[in-house]
Amino acid sequence: MKEITLRQLEYFLAVAELGSISAAARRCHVSAGGISLALNELEAGLGVQLMLRRKAKGAVLTAAGRWVAEQARSIVRDTKELQYGAQMLQGRLVGPLNIGCFSTLSPWLLPRIVEHFSLNHPDVDVDLVEGPSDHLQRLLHRGEIDVCLMYSKHVETDLEYRIITPVRLQVLLSADHPLAGLDEVSLNDLRDEPAVLLGLRPARDLAETVLRSAGFEPWIKWRSTNVETIRSIVARGLAYSVLMGRPLGDRTYEGLPVAYRRIKDDLPANSVIIAHPRGSSPSAKVQTLIDYCRGEFGSTRAPGLSD
Fold first, then answer.
1. Measured between alpha carbons, how far is 22 from 28 in angstroms, rounded to an integer?
2. Which residue from 8, 90, 111, 152 could staple onto 42, CB 3.0 to 4.6 Å apart?
3. CB 203 within 8 Å of CB 154
4. Sheet harboring 184-185: ordered strands across?
5. Mean pLDDT of the chain
6. Strands in the chain per DSSP E
7. How far apart are alpha carbons 209 and 43 in whole angstroms?
8. Are 129 and 99 in contact (CB under 8 A)?
9. Where's the HTH lysR-type domain (predicted)?
């Protein structure tokens, strides 16, 4: 039996994932001929056909190929962990760190996190995944991300989390709205006005629940997954909104002013959290991230975000 190499397995997995030898060649920075040669040698070494290769139709795994791909992923992953472990014995943080973050929190948190690891732990390969909290929680349980930054009120699955900083919803009004002159606004005073709300779940459902708890059915005229779009609609006097976070400057991309006001009503407690699956022990990289976030984004260090 011919010797099987780690490089052959890596090339095979690239083709299996991308479905194309040419695409795998671009990812691996080798020629398509080099990928094909590695696949031929791997198939000869194992004595089975791993994939069907057809011109203009890409590459499709056989039943044997699917089984080998599963084993190969474990081998490649374990080999990398061995390399990372050896480096960590020398006191270095190394390897991938996959961070999920609720979309609206990303501008507040991710740039500083990326800067911190780039400057202090350059051997950590930080990968960022942004999206709705429900999607991120599914990725977390599938092991596709290591941690998730989101709001505590968004937790729907069995997670352990650490609180980073408390937060509170605010009313967003146009600068010339009659209620903009108040320090605090009662939600009931907005019952007859149109609202534009964040369309990302579960934030969407939570905002509606808060408004209904004030004793009225909100008139939701628009939804958007983009906070800046919401701010621009509000700035034009077309609607109000309820949002977390307050960017510095209180102006939209167009330069129009908006007014953030504290909500007078009692609201459910909420916090920015960093979460990982219950029962899992945080790695050194994850613990470093947790410690950094709690120190950097605590209530006195996160203007515009914290309560």
1. 10
2. 8
3. yes
4. 184-185, 258-263, 170-174, 241-243
5. 89
6. 51-54, 58-61, 95-102, 124-131, 147-151, 159-167, 170-174, 184-185, 194-198, 219-224, 241-243, 258-263, 270-277
7. 58
8. yes
9. 4-62
Q: Are 63 and 252 in contact (CB under 8 A)?
A: no
The pLDDT assigned to 226 comes to: 92
Indicate the pTM of the whole model: 0.69
- Cα separation, 158 vs 153, in Å, equals 13
Q: b or e along 247-283 (b: 16 or more beta carbons within 10 Å of the residue's beta carbon)?
A: beebebeeebebbbbebbbeeeebbbbbbbbeeeebb
Domains of the chain: 6-88 (1.10.10.10), 95-167+270-296 (3.40.190.10), 170-263 (3.40.190.10)
| CB neighbour list of residue 102: distance below 8 Å, 6 or more residues apart | 130, 131, 132, 133, 136, 148, 149, 150, 151, 154, 200, 203
Report the side by side order of strands in the sheet with 147-151. 124-131, 95-102, 147-151, 270-277, 159-167
For residue 195, what pLDDT is reported? 97
Strand partners, 222: 196
CA neighbor of 297 nearest in space, from 219, 245, 256: 245
Angle 291-293-297 from CA coordinates, rounded to 5° = 135
Percent of the chain predicted with pLDDT > 90: 56
Residue 21 pLDDT exceeds 80: yes
Query: Is the pLDDT confidence value at 273 over 80?
Result: yes
